[in-house]
Every structure is written in structure tokens, then in C-alpha cells.
Amino acid sequence: MLTKRIIPCLDIKGGRAVKGVNFLNLRDAGDPVKLAKQYVAQNADELIFLDISASELKRKTLTNLVLKVAAAIDIPFTVGGGISSVEDAFAVLKNGADKVSINSAAVKNPRLITTLSKKFGSQCVVVAIDAKKLNSKWKVHLVGGKIPTEIDLFEWSKEVADRGAGEILFTSMDHDGTKKGFANKALAKLSSIINIPIIASGGAGKIQDFTDTFICGKSDAALAASVFHFGEISILDLKKQLKNQHINIRM
Predict the structure, then answer these.
(1) How far apart are the first and last CA of the chain?
(2) pLDDT digits over 156-190, tens only?
């Protein structure tokens, strides 16, 4: 059985870590380099850095900040936001990222998934999918959740896997920041139809939420932000309790 992973997320805007609810009402969460060091000390398995305004502002990822964060940590590091080409991906990998995350660019140009997978290896390619329920169906949203599409979450996920992505980061916009638990029914369905790892994102509020997404949602990893940023859950305590609940976790 594969070890489940705990992944803090740094949503970056204006060089600072931020966090909102349902992708809105962002508030400052601190210095990303300081937070990154803190998560390494707490035994996080990986770290994800998402430059959330890069696509909206049509600019590249903040590579200087990526370099600073990468220099401060020694755990796998994924970077996303504003990556739309091989050159963009190479720039963040050169600056210390281990993986790249693509979202809107993948929807607009699905061949980018295949191209990056062939160039850097599928293990380097994470496709992030932001989706919310519209008329009882999960629909993919772009540009930080601002632009709805008619693309079905599950059909898009299958295409993403078929095109060579190494894993999927699925964020439920309906659950984001609510602290009411992950979208476990959707996650379990995703797990049943694709054979690459799935990172659950959106809704972490208490330790039981992590247990539930690993057991009920069949998630391979769980991502959270505010509960870690603001000290509501310690990753060390979380892992101890998951271990006590017989979840296969790296201590």
C-alpha cells in the first residue's frame, strides 16, 4: 500500500501566502519562505506553491520567489501558476521545483500535458483541476476559478491521465476554505476511473477530514492551507493521529 501524503499549499499573491473561502475574500497568511521552513520542520511530505494571480494577469510565475522557497526546503516541491510552455516549466524546474502544476493552460492546450510528460517525465507533471457543481454536475473552472466551462470533471480527468500526467490535484471550489471536509464522493469516483495519484484539495477543517478523504475518498494525498498556516492543525499531530487510525503515513 502506498504511503499517504500530507501537503501544505502556498497560494501566492503579491509575493505573500494568502487564503480565502471558495476562492474569494483572500487574507494574508504570511511569508512563504518562513512557512515553507516551518512545514519542513513539521515533517510535511511535499509542498505546493501556486502563483494564483499569474494566469489572470497573464504573466509568468515568480521564479525568484520559487528559488528562495526551494533553497529553504528539502522535500518535493511543486510549482504552478502561469506555466503554459516547455520554457516556462523549465524555468521553474531550473529554479528548484521538482514538479510543475498546470491548470488553465492544460485545458486550453491539452497537448501541453503530453509534451511536458515526454520532455521532463510524467512524475514531473501535475495537472490541477478546479471544479464546482453546476446543476448537479461537476464542471471545470479556469483562471483561478473565475471562468466556468462546460467541461466535465471526470471526462477531463480521464483525458489528463491518458495524456501522461503523473498526478491530478483536484480542488473542489464548493469546499474550498469551508473547513467542512473534502469532496469525498467526487474523489472516490475519480479514483475509480483513473490510475494515477489524486491529491484532494478544498475543505480541510479537522483531523477527521484527512482520515475521511484517505478512507472514503480514496485520495492518495491531502492538501491543506489555512488550517496549517494559522496553526489550527499541526502536521506532526495530524500524522500521529492518522497513524493511530491505521492510515499508512510517513512519520
Answers:
(1) 16
(2) 999 999 999 999 999 999 998 889 999 999 999 99
Is 152 catalytic? The answer is no
Catalytic residue among 51, 130, 176, 220: 130
Q: What is the pTM of this model?
A: 0.92
Cα angle value 15/143/173 (rounded, 5°) = 95
Q: Please say if 130 is a catalytic residue.
A: yes
Long-range Cβ contact pairs of 29-32 (< 8 A, separation 24 or more): 29/225, 29/226, 29/229, 29/230, 30/229, 32/65, 32/68, 32/69
Report the percent of the chain where pLDDT is more than 70.
91
Catalytic residue among 11, 45, 176, 212: 11
Report whether pLDDT(229) > 90: no
Looking at the structure, give the CATH architecture of the domain made up of residues 5-244.
Alpha-Beta Barrel (3.20)
